[in-house]
Amino acid sequence: MDVISRTWAWLATGAHWSGPDGVWHRLAEHLELTAVCLALSCAVALPLAVVLGHTGRGGALAVNLSNAGRAVPTFAVLVLLTLGPLGAYEPWPTVLALVLFAIPPLLTNAYVGMREVDRDVVEAARGMGMSGRQVVGRVELPLALPLVMTGVRSAAVQVVATVSIAAMVGGGGLGRIITAGFRLTDTAQVVAGALLVAALALLVEGVFVALERWLGRARRRRGPVAPGPGPGPEESAERTSPVPNEWSAV
Amino acid sequence: MAGETGNCLIRNDWICAEYVRTRGQELTDATLQHVGITVVSVAVGLLIAFPLALAARRRRGVAGPVLGLTTVLYTVPSLAMFSLLVPVFGLSAAVVVTGLVLYSLTILVRNILAGLAAVPEEAREAARGMGYGPVRLLLTVELPLALPAVMAGVRIATVSTVSLTTVGALTGYGGLGNLIYEGLHSIFKAEVLTASVLCVLLAVVADMLLLGLQRLLTPWTRAGRKRKAAVARWT
After folding, report:
1. Whole-number pLDDT of residue B6
2. Which of A41, A124, A249, B192 has the fewest Cβ atoms nearer than 10 Å?
3. Are the CB atoms for B205 and B63 separated by under 8 Å?
4. CA distance B108 to chain A (A)
């Protein structure tokens, strides 16, 4: 129990929060890297998922990608990229690894979301004379949004977790407090850093859950987005739970 | 002599047969540690997940907290999870195993619950009508029928566990992750690549073995398909 009081003392020491090794600077690094990589992976995965989902092709790719992502250890990829030719250009090995691992949850969820849109609704939209682009923009994407957001949430949580592992390879972020604590054999610092990392991950998860709820409420206020307010599309759109198979911890 | 045998070691090539030959023992030890940590973690995870899932199924009041807590645990990054367990267990394999057990619980509890929920009510009714008590019903009717979903969970949990074990290198108990971590510090490319490839292979082999086990345990799923195929051929 001595650890708890020493951890508290570590966290209460102002010197640990300031400076280049301080909590605030590490937190800023962590958030910056997370935001950049999440934006990059969304820019790659979401358009691809929309095209694949709209045309109905590449389903096997979307599913196999997430299976492969689970089997390949993040830590190994981080080390391989760091020792590879890209290693001289820090932080690019880290960024590349983070983007690679964030793509599967984004791609799979958005693809499933697009495919789960009721075919009758899509047919109705086509019957109304909508072009392919309009079907995507006005019918499929709005109805797929809950699952797309679920994908973004799991990708965000995963990136936060992977950034912390990147500290083992020499990257920045809050994980550095933990790895430095191990080097100094300072258990209080290790636990304090772990608490900060865990709190950040839970906070990011919470923010995205709140965002999804808010979006859901906004949708309901505006009423059904798609033509045909039948129960079919609403039902499929409200299904926010991802297929449990898409889960993977980092 | 050194010029010939140590060539790829000196050049620090990614692929180096000489490394595998000279450090075979090290690779075997790390692989065995990796397998051991994974097997113990998933086995303990299953032992804890079953009663949790059964309790959650019986009472709605238990289901909420159990599912909520395992989801929160799943959100905690592995680096933080292992670090938080260090003051509890010291620098030991227990740190890594406990962390991995906690992660596997989320997947296992959910899949066991989903498998039990998918058992057809008619099968339950029929068994009760035949005088089956609750324990016999669970063991001989519900669990076998839930097996495909349970095994799917075990496969996901095992593959994730193999991958996550590498992070345990932080505490010195990461199986092949230890070699990857060591190779990072000594900039030893062959060590890192060999250990990484072995780790992926381990995940793939474990997944295939479990798939084979599932087929062995649920012969009726395949027999049905074969019979259907046979009927199709006859008609």
Report:
1. 56
2. A124
3. no
4. 10
- How does pLDDT run across A87-99, given as a tens digit for each residue? 888 889 999 999 9
Pair of tokens at residue A165: 């592992």
Dihedral class, residue B133 (left if φ above 0, else alpha if ψ from -120 to 50, else beta)? beta
Q: Could you tell me which residues of chain A have a Cβ less than 8 Å from any Cβ in chain B? A: 3, 67, 70-77, 79-80, 82-83, 157, 160-162, 164-165, 167-169, 175, 178-179, 181-182, 187, 190-191, 193-195, 197-198, 201-202, 205, 244-245, 247-250
Please, what is the Cα angle at B125 between B119 and B129, to 5 degrees?
145
Q: How far is CA A203 from CA A156, A195, A196, in A?
A: 11, 12, 10
Domains in chain A with CATH codes: 2-246 (1.10.3720.10)
pLDDT tens sequence for chain B (235 residues): 444 555 888 888 898 888 888 888 999 999 999 999 999 999 999 999 999 999 999 888 888 999 999 889 999 999 999 999 999 998 899 999 999 999 999 999 999 999 999 999 999 999 999 999 999 999 999 999 999 999 999 999 999 999 999 999 999 999 999 999 999 999 999 999 999 999 999 999 999 999 999 999 888 877 656 555 555 555 4
Contact B182, B8 (CB under 8 A): no
* ipTM field: 0.87
- The number of CA neighbours under 13 Å toward the Cβ of B5 is 6
CA atoms within 13 A on the CB side of A61: 14
Percent helix, strand, coil in chain A, to 5, is 80, 0, 20
Give the domains, in start order, of chain B with CATH numbers. 2-227 (1.10.3720.10)
Please state, as a whole number, how many other Cβ atoms lie within 10 Å of the Cβ of residue B70.
21
